Amino acid sequence: MDSAAVNRALARIAHEIVERNPEEGEICLVGIVRRGASLADVLAAKIRSLGVETKIGYIDITLYRDDLTETESQQPHLHSTKIDFSLTGKTVIMVDDVLYTGRTARAAMEAIIALGRPSKIQFAVLIDRGHRELPIIADYVGKNVPTSKSEVIFVRFPPFDDEVSVSIWGR
Questions:
Q1: What distance in Å separates the CA atoms of residue 100 and residue 106, rounded to the nearest whole number?
Q2: Global pTM?
Q3: Which CATH code of 3.40.50.720, 3.30.70.2760, 3.40.228.10, 3.40.50.2020 fits the domain covering 3-63+80-170?
Q4: Span 18-47, pLDDT tens digits
């Protein structure tokens, strides 16, 4: 996907979020650090442009992952969580770049629930590549990209990258 295709996918997701949540007075997006946070920023701007109040926060799921190692040589690098609004009673939409095994989504749900008790949690992803290990599905998907397990999806998005694109590479 080039920049235009990514932008169209994010615009479509923003419209779907607004359409599926008409009763919500505001939309609460929580971007999963790293690229999910940047995508959440773009989605928030698109939702606001549709006239819907939008709150945005960012969550680090590192300590909720089920693959953390206990060895000192591989200590996890922590990022900051920044959610300055209550999640309790709200519909919270998690945002990430790629849905693969479902483990990141599970960790994000645990991290969100540790901060409050949302009435609903929904999930928006730019790319769904399949190969689930957990029963997780996204509510909003920019593009389904069937892949083999030997392939890797690269999402490039500022501020981490100099371009906006999605590509597949074989290992």
A1: 12
A2: 0.91
A3: 3.40.50.2020
A4: 999 998 888 999 999 989 999 999 999 999
